[in-house]
Amino acid sequence: MEQMLMGAIAAGWLVAGLFFFRFWRQTGDRFFLWFALSFWLETAGRVALALMSPAAEDNPGIFGVRVVAYGLILLAIWQKNRKR
């Protein structure tokens, strides 16, 4: 059951990434590209977590992927709000 839920969460992250990727292609705004990459990193992290037996969310590799993903979101917000 846990692996099925991890797969569903990963599918949700993947769809969200595709959503933002579509907007990046339409607008060319890097904000959407950073968000798409962040969600795809989250997808990869969830898939890796689902493949682990037993699932260990405190694994440094999984935690590192999340830190990078959230860092991309912060980068996107910073770039969007900086003065030009």
Written overview of the protein:
There is one protein chain. The chain is mainly alpha-helical and 84 residues long. It has one domain (2-81). Helices cover 83% and strands 0% of the residues. It is built from three helices and no strands. It has helices at residues 2-27, 30-51, 60-81. Helix 1 (2-27) runs antiparallel to helix 2 and helix 2 packs antiparallel against helix 3. 20% of the residues are buried. Keywords: Membrane, Transmembrane, Transmembrane helix. It holds the Pfam family DUF5985.
Largest sheet: none
Overall geometric form: flat
User: Portion of residues in helices?
Assistant: over 70%
Tell me, rounded to a whole number, the average pLDDT. 92
The count of helical stretches stands at: 3
Radius of gyration: 14 Å
Helix/strand order, N-terminal first? HHH
